Structures are given as structure tokens and as C-alpha cells.
Amino acid sequence: MKKFAWLGLSILLLGACGTNEAETSGAGNTLEEVVVEFNTGQTAEVGEEVTLSVTVTQGGEAVEDADEVVYEVWESGHRKDGEMITAEHTADGIYEAETVFEEEGLYYMQAHTTARRLHAMPKQEVTIGNPDPESIVPDDSEDSEGMNMIEEHGGH
Q: Residue 147: which residues within 8 A CB-CB, separation 6 or more?
């Protein structure tokens, strides 16, 4: 009977060691949040070239190797008619693209950003000219509440 007690105790100790090792080794694999901040102003004039710009960082350091930064731009109430504009890396974690707004209105720009197996989709409003307040349609898209959504992409 004593042999079984020692065997059971040995198994428990080995099991506890294995659990502790798994917990500490996994801590080093935690992904730190990728932060995407807009540099673009919130107002512009009709026909003016506007630089869509974000700074991408992780752990306070510039991300120079984002897999993709694409701006989705649409007028309020017309998301299905939006345009996708691919950004170029310029320097210091900054990704930019150019566009021109041809009509007054409230527009949204969303920076679909994939970097280091994470995806962030912050959104910002841009008012072009002096739009009629009656022409502005509230954003009721699925992500209207989550202006800064982040999700992990595995296997990339």
C-alpha cells in the first residue's frame, strides 16, 4: 500500500511541475497591443488633397513592418459605396495615402491595419466643407461603437 501512496505522490508532484512550467513559458508569448493613431485632421475643404495618415506602434515603438494598412473611406449613410485606399509606409511607423473629397459632407475613414498577427480598425470622422446637418446620417455599422477594435490573427 505504501508503494501506491509514493507512486500517487510522485505523479501529483510531476503534474504540478508540468502545470507551473506551462504557465510561465506561455507568459513570454503574450502579444502586446498594436496601437493605431490617426494623424489626419478632422476637417478639410472640398477639392483639397487630404493625406490619410496613421502612426502604428507596439509597446511604444514604431511598427515599420505592418503587413497591411488600408483606409476605408465613405460618406455618412453610404458605407456600401466606400472606397478602399492602400497606404504606403513613409517612416517612423507612419502609413499614408492621399485622397480628395469632391463633395461636402461628413465622412468616415477606417484604418484596417494588420501588423504582427494583430488587426486593428480605428475609425475617425472627417468633416468636409460645411455640410447641411440634415444630410448627415448617424453611423449604424456593426463597428460604430468599437472605434478601436483589435483581434488576433493566427497562422499569418
A: 122, 123, 124
DSSP 75: E
Strand segments (E) across 82-149: 83-86, 88-91, 94-100, 105-115, 118-120, 123-128
Going along the chain from its start, the domains and CATH numbers come out as: 34-152 (2.60.40.1930)
The residues pairing with 49 across neighbouring beta strands, listed in sequence order, are 100
User: Rounded to whole angstroms, how far apart are CA atoms 15 and 89?
Assistant: 49
Q: Can you give the pTM of this predicted structure?
A: 0.73
Cross-strand bridge partners of residue 57: 35, 62
Confidence of residue 138 (pLDDT cuts 50, 70, 90): confident
Query: Which residue is it, cell 461628413?
Result: 106
